[in-house]
Structure formats: C-alpha cells, structure tokens
Amino acid sequence: MTETSVFAVNPEVAENAWVDEAGYFRLYEQSIADPEAFWGEHGKRIHWMKPFTKVKDVSYAPDDLHIRWFQDGTTNVAYNCLDRHLATKRDDTAIIFEGDDPKDSKHISYGEAYEEVCRLANVLKAQGVRKGDRVTIYMPMVPEAAFAMLACARIGAIHSVVFGGFSPDSLANRIVDCDSNFVITADEGVRGGRKIPLKANTDKALEKCPGVDKVLVLRRTGGQIGWVEGRDLWYHEELAKVSDDCPPEEMNAEDPLFILYTSGSTGKPKGVLHTTGGYLVYASMTHQYVFDYHDGDVYWCTADVGWVTGHSYIVYGPLANGATTLVFEGVPNYPDASRFWQVVDKHKVSIFYTAPTAIRALMREGEGPVRRTSRKSLRLLGSVGEPINPEAWLWYHKVVGDERCPIVDTWWQTETGGILITPLPGATPLKPGSATRPFFGIKPVMVDADGKHLEGACEGNLCIGDSWPGQMRTVYGDHERFVQTYFSTYPNKYFTGDGARRDADGYYWITGRVDDVINVSGHRMGTAEVESALVAHAKVAEAAVVGYPHDIKGQGIYAYVTLVAGEEPSDALRKELVQWVRSEIGPIASPDLIQWAPGLPKTRSGKIMRRILRKIAENDYSNLGDTSTLADPAVVDDLIQHRQNKR
Ligand code: WTA
Asked: Fewest CB within a 10 Å sphere: which of 57, 64, 80, 644?
C-alpha cells in the first residue's frame, strides 16, 4: 500500500450526490471567505421559532473567550427532530430498533416517536424537572434512550448521557459534577447475550449522590432489581398517567442542550457543553452532506448513545433530517461474526457508519461471514473514532462494500459536536487512511511545537483557526479549564490535541493524540484516569499508564505499577488490579498489560518521563532520547528487561 493510491470519485455517486468536486471547492471557499453569509444561509436549514438576525459572535481571546452562534434566534431541538416532520412523514419510520436478540426488532414511526417523547416530557415535568435542570441518562441502546434525550430537549432540561459500560463510581462522579437530581435508566441492558445490571449500578452510584430524588426505570428485561419506594418510578406506569400533549419549550440558540463527559489529560473527565441552535445546524448539515443522506435511505450508525457519535449521528443529525435511523442494541459478533451484515440485509441499510476497531475485529474472522450476506442495499460506508489503517480500509472497501461504496473517514471529537475533516462521497477522491479535507467552514491550521504556522505539506499539531456552529461552548462549571485546555497552548486557535500530517494535495492524515489521552477501541481514555484508579488500590504506591499499538483496539492500555513496600508481585495481584480498574471506571479502562516497576523514570525534579515509558511499551528502544537527566538512569534498563509482551 503506497500513499499514492487514490480512489477516484465514482461518477454515478457524484451525479446523485448533494455536491460534486467543483461544488465542494466553491462552497468551501465561500464558507471560509464569508462565514457570516455562509452560516446565515445554512442556519435556516432548521426551524426557528424566532429567526436569528445575528450569525456569529466569537472571541478566542483567553480573557474574553466566548462562542455564540445565531444568538438571538429561538428554536426547539425536539420540535425540529419530530414535530416538523409530522405533516409529511407521520407514518414513515423514524427509528428501526434491532435488539440484541436477532428475533427482536421493530419500526417506530415519526408519529409514534413524537407521541412517546411528548408523554415522557410530561412525566419529567410532572416530577418537577424544569428548564435548565440536569437529567442523567444511563440507558442501554434502545429507542427509549433517544426518547429520553428528546424529552429533555423538548422541555429545555439539559441531558447528560452516561455510557452504560461505566461503573457505579464513574456514574456517581458525573451525576455529582453537574448536580443532576434525576436519573433515567433501565432494569438491565442486554449485549451479546449478557445482562448489564444498570439499575443495580445506579443504586450503588446513588449511595454517593444524595441530590438525586427520582429515578425513572425502563423495564427492558424484567430481571430482579432493587426498588426504593418514593424514589424509583416505572417508565411504563408514569407514561400511562400523562397526556401526549406537550408544547415544545422555546429555547434560545445558546441555551444548553447537553453535557457529555469526556476524558482529558487530567484524572477528572470534563463536562463538554453543547448548546441548541448551532449544534443542531451543524449536526444535521454534516449528516446530510457527509453521508449524502437522501429520503429513502436507511441509515445505521453502530455507536452507542453514550458517546458523541451516538448523540450527533444516531439521534440529532438524522432525526433533524427526517431520516430513518437504526438503533442497535447488540455487538458485532453476536450471535456470530456475520451479525452486522445480516442486519444490513434485514433492514436494507444503505448507509453504514462504524469504528475501525470493529472492522479490524471482523477482519480477523475472515471474509466468509461477510461474503455469505448480500449487502446489495449498501451504497456508502463510514468510519469514525480513531485512525483507520489502510489495511482495514481496503478490506472494508473490498469485502464489505464490494468495491462499490465510497468510505467516508470522518475525523472529529466530542468537543467539535460534528464532523470536521472528511471526504464527501460525490466530491472527494479517497486515499485509504486519510480523513482527507475539511468540511465547509472548517479552517485547519497546522502548527509546530512552538506554535509556528506550517504551510503546505507538513507534519505537526492540528488546530482549527476559527469557530463553527457545532463547537462546544464551555466545560460545564469550569470555564477556566475550557480556556486552558483548548485555547492557551496556541493563541487564537482551537487546539485539538491531535497530531496530523498534511500532504501535497492538502489531505489530512490524523496521526493520533499528542496529549495524555489514548484511544482504546475508539473510546477516549485519559491515562491519568487509569492511573488514579490504580493508585487508589491499597497495594499500589505509584502507577504510570501509556498507550501501545494493539492489533484490534488500535491502542491498548499499558500500566507500569510500583507496589507499596512489602507487597509481592504475583499473577493473582495482576488480575486483582485489572478487576479493580474495571470496577473503578468500567470495562473499557481495563489495562491490557501490567508491568511491575520497582521504579519509574523520573527527572531530578520528580516528573515522570512518559516519553520513555511509551517507547518501552511500544518495544522501540532505538530512540529513547537523553536519559542522562534522569534521577536514576538504571531504572530504564530494568524496565526494558522486564517489558511485558503483547497478548
Ligand atoms: C480520534 C469521537 C483519526 C482523534 C468522534 C480525536 C480519529 C478523538 C478519527 C476524539 C478519525 C476520531 N481518524 N482519529 N476519523 N475520529 N479520532 O471525543 O484522536 O470520542 O481527537 O470523538 O478520536 O474522540 P471522541
């Protein structure tokens, strides 16, 4: 595979697409030359109760950092996702639900979704939830998770969805951080035939959250659960008590829509805050153009609503566009490795959006499970969450897409609200492994370590030079952290935390995080979070965590652990620590490899030299750099000698 392989745009795709190559350049140039005019026009794609007259008001100056879009307009996100489509699409399918069990699926029309969201919104109101209150959603991948988000949006409550794979402790921290007093959950989730005890986890979390007074519980499995009288309410019972008439709350464009916690370089996840108008304009517009969405498509994004991809590209973008969006409860390899493609055939999916880690895992099973399905309905494939290696890209293209479907490799982040760098199917020649070009209105800027702008073909740190409507507005409750994290390293730019290369054609190749965030199976994990979980164990004195290349997960978690004096390393202790981290954070944070480290490489001032730890984990000793500044250089030799092998 050489970098020069280019897959030309398929003329048939271009002909039916929203934009072709010339169209892309024209629109892109307009969007950069006059953002006010461009977004003033495209801002009208959603319904405004009161139209905006101001388009953009942004300052990236640290002492006056603010980001406002369409600030005098009013609208409602749930209205845009549901009510607006009733006149023409009441009986069209809004959501196809495909359960973990292949026998369990159903279609939910726009009319049905509207009615249920109105009822749920009335339940929230009846329970005292008001505009601006924070509602925590800890749900399996069922349509009710989307209904819960939309019900919050309808009444102006701010939702905070917590991924169902997070532990009770992680859930509690997120509830406390945003001072949420209402939780929506289910008795149990089901994934790959296994039950996930969501209600039991919630009960445990709430021991640490005295502020929560109500828990609304969806009956998903009917399994045995604990019940707190006066606090816990059944979803189906409460919905039956209220009317389905719930007028949407008129929200200002800059009123918060949701908080979503994401990992950063410190131990504490940050509450990324997105607002109403700009977010919806951006999510719906990218969904339309990047996936070249047309009426009649069946669109499937395999993410979980617990991540931003689920927010923007399962729920808000597709529904704002009146699309049919598929909600999948299960996993790629249950009942077997053919599941994704069976679902594609069963529901005639035309647009399919998944993560490289899933592709790599399925690739390992060979072509058989794919080839024995038809996949004729597919016309477009997407990738998100981490760099896709060219080998996986080619397999996705050839085996899954029968060389017929373009692949959109979409680069973006929780913070960006929507896709920033991506091919457009009718416009962009593809290079396997490259996210290609910026979306409309996105101005990538490459800088070196000192912040110097790099021109032409180059490698450096990726920043974005100006705002776009879907950008996060602040870190909930900690605006200073927002300023520090994203706008202080390189003045007047948004710093993404990613490294990238730009080639001579102006294509971007994301190389991965340049901060202490790692990307495990497309899930963002702060190394500091795993470290603080480890050192919270009584036998651990010190821990340092880095990422290392992992065939399936992209990156694996490599932990160096120093035990407290008197404790002996053992395999049993290793297992105990893995289990400990799972219960502290969640299974996605399980260390893949733990190395016992009698000492960690530190500078004389006591700073851990992670660069060296990363090299050792990567098994790359060629370039350890200068170790002479270490307090005890012998530590490094010991670590090299006892490096753990990849499993
Ligand atoms: C990485 C997920 C390469 C990147 C939407 C980013 C990618 C982080 C891609 C954000 C891609 C996401 N190519 N890297 N197509 N998409 N990333 O917040 O490192 O969960 O900073 O948002 O994932 O992860 P997050």
From this structure: 64
